[in-house]
User: What shape does this take?
Amino acid sequence: ASVLSAFISTHSEPSINLLPDLLRQIPIVLFSGEYDLICNHLATENMLDGMTWNDKTGFNLGNETVAPIDPWIVEGETAGFIQYARNLTYILFHNAGHMVPYNQGRRSRAMLHQFIQLNLTHSNNQTMENNNTGVNPIMHRYFKHFILIVFTVIITGIALTGIIRYFACKRQQSVITVPYHSPNLFRSKQQPTTYTLLNRNRDVLDDKISA
Assistant: This one.
């Protein structure tokens, strides 16, 4: 906590104001995780595209050309994308969030080693030309974002369906069914039998005659 508080500055200037002067003196590497929701890489890339350093804006190389976005290869695998112009190197890590070294430890170490040796953009080391790989990095990036959005929509739909079914079942259980007996209007009425003294005497007389 004490280390963190020592780095906190409430009146610090935005990095877009500090980076141009630094880039005139030293090389700088910036990196982002493609799944970082705290410091989204799209915002970082928009900032770099609009920032002017070393007499040019963004990754402009002059003569209306822009620095290519090449696949960044680590240990024979595509680890992300890399772009370089005028002392600034930008790397986008695949399969990493806000804590890039935690998500991609080996690749983060490879990035640090390459940067110390100043060979991040060496074509024989860790980068490949787009024409050789046949990979369009921009389309690949948007495709992964599309897959993430579709997956999120599916999970949200499943969750909402489960919630709706749960409350529907709870509502059915709370309903008490009261049996209802409709009167039978066509039921035949039993006629009461009147047993009088006369009927009794007749029964006794019939018994004597039979005897």
